[in-house]
């Protein structure tokens, strides 16, 4: 039996508990195994990387808060011990390590995080498919603004962020609706600040499929019909081109004939003028010379009109030829897509059903059509004024609006076709009241859900994508992503990855704690809504006595703590239900 160790006071109780959890999932050992080129002086670079993650996990807005807060984490030996470290470095050392980290090294660290995530994600994917028969993804773009006067952040650009134009980045994020954890972050990628949502829809979907390893069957039947329709339209364009080419050729031939007649008339006029001059005859209004001059003017007028007509015909022909080029390029692109989709379907032994929810910034016609063809059930809003104005024209004072929210009403059309979109859509026109101001919006849906028969459910299901918006807000306000703690590109990349991993990590740990700690606060018991803000910003900065045990520790919150009288007995073990062998072969982790 090991000798009892004295109790230790910590001012960061949850960081101690989370250190035990990090041990149970193998995170600490895996990161320490990553080879980093920087040397160890007093603390290893791997220790500083772990300390950086702890700073994010503690919701510290600035890196210097590791050393300069009221109770510095780098002086808390209990936290260091829970994370299997002899001690922590000063924040300046952490900053130097992050400034010197290479992208290849950051990639290795993120690979470790993905390997840790994989079995937990696989379990959630199987649970979601078992419960609802499909996966539900949400995608969004969020800003990461920096000082407008800064010159040290790599790859930044001015873009619309928050309430104005700022310098910074745009982070493209994807989450999965998780039966156990509510929101499960899958991916985050930074882009320059001038990146707009409509350019990122494909990347979000591909990131989701890469992380889960699963995808729906591509709708090749719809794509084939779309290609045939475009080919028919292109043949009509070609027929129009042939007609316009003939008309232009006729005009050009007529022009040549008129020019010939004009030349002859000019010669006739010249001779008449010479004859009149030789005979000293006056030119009278109805004389032969006057008639010859009038005839020349007539031919000149005909030539001008013919040239004008030919110029118009040539311009119209060029427009149609350009339309043909665009149509051919579109057909070629869709044919390539069809070939890729057919190959994709052949190599998809376990197709799933999946929903993708995105906001209006992503909802261009091409993006929505692509999502449909990719096999997804689509919930979105139209980009800009694509649909709303024309739907408003179909309402009148007698229109029967259905209330769907406290200040929202809707009307809907099922399988509505539009001349500028290839597939029928379920569309719902929304009417909102903001004081005395009335605003309108449109919901778009494609898929099997009978949304038009239950408008309140449609309205609330789309707006349930607020879960990703809440996650973005959580990242900024709880894990302090409103402020970048680092300035090198690999370190910024690592901070983004650590932040989404931390959001998942706290939820996993809540489930782990619930399974072994009966004295958890009530608000922590639901692993889908485990009071992340309180855990990070309060409990991670709360004092407790730590009693070390062979397989974990006992945390007893002090009398000065918000959680006074509670204790947490945590063991360094956690069992995750691994996917069945057939599913494990399908949920292929892409490292």
Protein model, in words:
The chain is an alpha+beta fold and 591 residues long. It has three domains: 8-108 and 487-586, no CATH class; 221-346, Orthogonal Bundle (Helix Hairpins); 359-464, no CATH class. Helix content is 48%, strand content 19%. It has helices at 13-24, 27-33, 45-57, 65-68, 77-82, 91-100, 103-132, 201-212, 220-278, 288-346, 365-373, 388-392, 455-463, 466-477, 489-514, 532-537, 581-586, and strands at 8-10, 134-145, 157-161, 164-178, 182-192, 353-357, 377-380, 402-405, 408-418, 421-434, 437-446, 544-549, 552-557, 567-571. Strands 2, 3, 4, 5, 6, 7, 8, 9, 10 and 11 form a ten-stranded mixed beta sheet that branches. A hairpin with a 2-residue loop joins strand 10 and strand 11. Helix 7 runs parallel beside helix 15. The longest helix is centred in the middle third of the chain and has 59 residues, at 220-278. The radius of gyration is 35 Å and the shape is elongated. Residues 580-591 have low confidence and may be disordered.
Features of this protein?
ten-stranded mixed β-sheet; 591 residues; alpha+beta; elongated; 3 domains; 48% helix; Helix Hairpins; disordered C terminus; 17 helices
What does the largest sheet look like?
Answer: 10 strands, mixed
User: Any idea how many domains?
Assistant: 3
Rg over alpha carbons: 35 Å
Using the alpha-carbon principal axes, give the shape. elongated
- Helix count? 17
Nearest-integer average pLDDT? 92
Q: pLDDT under 50 segments (min length 5)?
A: 580-591
Helical content stands at: 40-55%
Tally the beta strands. 14
Terminal Cα separation, in Å?
42 Å
> How large is the share of residues in beta strands?
15-25%
Please state the structural category: alpha+beta
């Amino acid at each position: 039996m090991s000798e009892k160790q004295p109790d230790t006071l910590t001012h960061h109780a949850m960081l101690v508990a989370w250190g035990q959890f990090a041990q149970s999932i193998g995170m600490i050992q895996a990161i320490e195994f990553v080879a980093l080129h920087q040397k160890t002086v007093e603390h290893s670079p791997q220790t500083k990387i772990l300390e950086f993650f702890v700073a994010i996990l503690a919701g510290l807005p600035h890196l210097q808060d590791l050393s300069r807060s009221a109770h510095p984490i780098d002086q808390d030996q209990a936290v260091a011990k829970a994370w299997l470290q002899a001690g922590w470095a000063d924040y300046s050392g952490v900053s130097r390590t992050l400034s010197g980290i290479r992208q290849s090294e950051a990639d290795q660290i993120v690979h470790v995080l993905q390997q840790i995530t994989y079995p937990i994600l696989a379990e959630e994917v199987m649970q979601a498919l078992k419960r609802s028969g499909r996966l539900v993804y949400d995608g969004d773009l969020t800003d990461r603004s920096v000082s407008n006067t800064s010159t040290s952040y790599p790859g930044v650009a001015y873009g619309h962020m928050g309430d104005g134009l700022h310098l910074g980045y745009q982070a493209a994020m994807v989450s999965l609706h998780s039966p156990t954890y509510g929101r499960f972050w899958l991916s985050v990628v930074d882009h320059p600040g001038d990146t707009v949502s409509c350019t990122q829809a494909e990347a979000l979907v591909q990131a989701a499929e890469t992380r889960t390893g699963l995808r729906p069957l591509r709708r090749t039947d719809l794509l084939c019909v779309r290609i045939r329709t475009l080919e028919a339209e292109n043949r009509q364009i070609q027929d129009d081109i042939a007609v316009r080419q003939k008309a232009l050729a006729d005009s050009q031939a007529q022009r040549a004939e008129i020019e010939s007649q004009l030349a002859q008339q000019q010669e006739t006029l010249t001779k008449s003028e010479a004859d009149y001059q030789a005979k000293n005859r006056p030119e009278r209004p109805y004389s032969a010379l006057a008639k010859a001059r009038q005839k020349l003017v007539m031919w000149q007028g005909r030539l001008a009109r013919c040239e004008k007509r030919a110029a118009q015909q040539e311009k119209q022909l060029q427009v149609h030829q350009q339309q043909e080029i665009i149509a051919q390029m579109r057909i070629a692109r869709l044919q390539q897509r069809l070939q890729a989709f057919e190959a994709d379907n052949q190599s998809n032994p376990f197709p799933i059903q999946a929903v993708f929810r995105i906001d209006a910034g992503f909802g261009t016609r091409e993006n929505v059509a692509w999502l449909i063809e990719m096999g997804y059930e689509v919930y979105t809003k139209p980009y800009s004024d694509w649909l709303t104005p024309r739907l408003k024209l179909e309402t009148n004072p007698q229109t029967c609006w259905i209330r769907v929210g406290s200040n929202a009403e809707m009307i809907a059309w099922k399988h509505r076709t539009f001349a500028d979109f290839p597939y029928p859509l379920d569309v719902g026109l929304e009417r909102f009241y903001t004081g005395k101001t009335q605003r309108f919006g449109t919901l778009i849906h494609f898929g099997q859900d009978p949304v038009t028969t239950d408008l309140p459910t449609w309205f609330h299901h789309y707006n349930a994508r607020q879960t990703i918006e809440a996650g973005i807000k959580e990242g900024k306000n709880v894990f302090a992503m409103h402020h970048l703690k680092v300035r090198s590109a690999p370190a910024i990349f690592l901070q983004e990855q650590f932040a989404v991993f931390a959001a998942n990590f706290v939820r996993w740990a809540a489930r782990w704690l619930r399974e072994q700690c009966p004295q958890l606060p009530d608000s922590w018991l639901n692993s889908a809504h485990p009071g992340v803000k309180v855990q990070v910003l309060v409990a991670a900065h709360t004092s407790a006595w730590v009693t070390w045990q062979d397989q974990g520790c006992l945390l007893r919150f002090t009398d000065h703590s918000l959680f006074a009288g509670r204790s947490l007995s945590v063991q360094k073990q956690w069992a995750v239900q691994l996917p069945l062998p057939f599913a494990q072969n399908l949920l292929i982790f892409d490292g």
